[in-house]
Design a protein that fits this description.
The protein contains ten helices and eleven strands. By secondary structure, it is of the alpha/beta class. It has two domains: 28-113, Leucine Dehydrogenase, chain A, domain 1 (Rossmann fold), CATH 3.40.50; 139-270, Rossmann fold (3-Layer(aba) Sandwich), CATH 3.40.50.720. The strands form three sheets. It has a six-stranded parallel beta sheet. A three-stranded parallel beta sheet has the order 3-2-4, covered by helices on one side. The chain starts with a strand and ends with a helix. The model has no long low-confidence stretch (mean pLDDT 97). It binds guanine.
Length: 291
């Protein structure tokens, strides 16, 4: 069994980007610039956005954090998005989700200029991804593909079962794993809350990608010997630690790990990869802008 070490791989990618930024600056170019918009003060979102901004500093990017009150109106937020679209100093930006209930997230995401949409959430970028055209692939599915690539995990002709059909993870990764690419080229089943006999289905999988957010959902008896197990779950569960919580995945790691051929731990698997891929997308947006 091989542990797919997202923490190490993410650090490798950040170091690669830092080297490239150093060389660009030496040649007189400005630094890439990522902006992040956060609305309200949801604890998890603040943590994620904080990590994204810190990662920028570490690798020599410029970053701008735009914190907005959760009472902001949809029109005011659309104005902010418009400002970012027109700001030549910003190469790419993200609007952290979830947004407050009174704001239509789709409307906001569709207002982001696709050339600055480093989250890959705009329908144009999502569509380009589905057609295997150059695009920005969302950080989490992109991170999974990059982990599979760097560890040379065999995927061609395999049966991939994706659990969960969210717009951010389940839906895009189900498309990517079926594209004629490496990694990819697998036969994909997208399972969700209405799927019948889900345990039997998971048992048939060569590759399981769980993006459900239900702790310990994937148990050892559901997993075929030698399966590849990718755990995208990041549920906060209260505990006695200083932080007051721990991060738990969808997979019963202790019992599943020794049945698997490759497995991602939680924490330290897919999670850290997401930031590395956001930075990768931002570098790409920057290079397109300066060239
Ligand atoms: N909320 C959870 N994941 C993400 C992400 O990848 N991007 C943004 N913008 N919000 C999120």
């Amino acid at each position: 069994m091989v542990v797919l070490d997202g923490k190490k791989t993410s650090n490798d990618i950040k170091n690669e980007i830092a080297e490239e930024v150093k060389s660009l600056k030496k040649n007189g170019y400005r630094a890439p610039h990522l902006a992040a918009v956060i609305v309200g003060n949801d604890g998890a979102s603040l943590t994620y956005v904080g990590s994204k901004v810190r990662a920028c500093e570490r690798i020599g990017f410029e970053s701008t954090l735009i914190s907005l009150e959760d009472s902001i109106s949809e029109t005011e937020l659309l104005d902010k998005v418009n400002d970012l679209n027109n700001d030549d100093k910003i190469d790419g930006y993200i609007v952290q989700l979830p947004l407050p209930k009174h704001i239509d997230s789709q409307k906001i995401l569709m207002a982001v200029d696709p050339s600055k949409d480093v989250d890959g959430f705009h329908p144009t970028n999502f569509g380009r991804m589905a057609l295997n055209l150059p695009t920005y692939i969302s950080a989490t599915p992109h991170g999974i593909m990059e982990l599979l690539k760097r560890y040379d995990v065999p995927t061609e002709g395999k049966h991939t079962v994706v659990i969960g059909r969210s717009d951010i993870v389940g839906k895009p990764i189900s498309i990517l794993m079926g594209l004629k690419t490496k990694p990819g080229n697998s036969t994909v089943t997208l399972a969700h809350s209405r799927t019948k006999n889900i345990s039997d289905l998971i048992q048939e999988a060569d590759i399981i990608i769980s993006a459900l957010g239900v702790p310990n959902f994937v148990k050892a008896e559901m997993v075929k010997d030698g399966a590849v197990v990718i755990d995208v779950g990041i549920t906060r569960v209260k505990d006695d630690s200083e932080k007051g919580y721990k991060i738990v995945g969808d997979v019963d790691y202790e019992n599943v790990a020794n049945k698997s051929s490759f497995i991602t731990p939680v924490p330290g698997g897919v999670g850290p990869m997401t930031i590395a891929m956001l930075l990768t997308n931002t570098l790409k947006a920057y290079l397109q802008r300066i060239n």
